[in-house]
Design goal:
The protein has about 230 residues and is of the alpha/beta class. It contains 10 helices and 6 strands.
Length: about 230
């Protein structure tokens, strides 16, 4: 067989095995960019303690649904106390939670390697998706002086993670396998699966969906991994 033909066969073989390059990085916030999961736990504990007869039930619900927005958890509280349509109380609970978390988040530490990772991949579009309401998220990012890092930030409400990911794919005009999300929870993992984008787990103590994704202890480790993939 001519040497030139062998070379063409080899090139075609390797091209079939080349994975599309990653063109977009998507970050979760709590537990990925900042070590803040304990802050949310503390805020829920503070509020739920005002309902001692339901406290343990409420905390169990929180930990079981850690990836869900505070809205769902306060809806559950209102259901337990038979005040499902008390919108005034719901707004009060939301405002109290916001006040507690915004104040505590002013001094929250970054996950190890965050600044280095965003510097290394600054030429890529970087997006942020969180279950924190967008109004609170904007304040928190400004307090931490990192709001300018992200091309766009999505909070819940008004977005959920699946709808946010789908909008990013459409806006960037990319295929799902050209995006990768870094998350720390089962909710992040499932959102990535449903939108068919790549996923990397940062271990913050929370569980992931099965089968388990690639999991790393911090963003330094993730940065090294991404360097080989991008």
């Amino acid at each position: 067989m001519p040497e030139k033909f062998i070379l063409i066969l080899k090139q075609n073989y390797y091209n079939l095995n080349i994975k599309p390059s990653i063109k977009v990085l998507i970050f979760d916030f709590d537990g990925v960019i900042v070590d803040s999961n304990h802050i949310k736990d503390k805020a829920f504990k503070t509020i739920f303690k005002e309902y001692p007869e339901h406290y343990q039930n409420l905390m169990n619900y929180h930990f079981k649904n850690v990836s869900k927005s505070r809205v769902f958890k306060f809806d559950y509280l209102l259901k337990l106390i038979n005040k499902e349509n008390d919108y005034k109380l719901k707004n009060e609970l939301m405002k109290k939670f916001s006040t507690i978390t915004i104040d505590l988040m002013k001094s929250v530490p970054f996950v190890n390697g965050f600044k280095k990772l965003v510097e290394k991949f600054k030429d890529l579009p970087l997006y942020l998706i969180s279950v924190t309401p967008i109004e609170d998220l904007v304040i928190i990012l400004n307090n931490l002086s990192i709001s300018n890092i992200f091309k766009k930030t999505y909070g819940c409400p008004p977005w959920n993670k699946i709808s946010a990911i789908n909008e990013i794919l459409i806006f960037e005009k990319i295929k799902p396998n050209e995006a990768i999300m870094i998350g720390d929870s089962i909710g992040d993992h499932i959102a990535s699966k449903k939108t068919k984008i790549n996923f990397i787990g940062r271990y913050s103590g929370l569980p992931f969906d099965k089968p388990s994704p690639k999991i790393f202890k911090d963003l330094n480790s993730i940065s090294k991994y991404l360097t080989r993939k991008i």
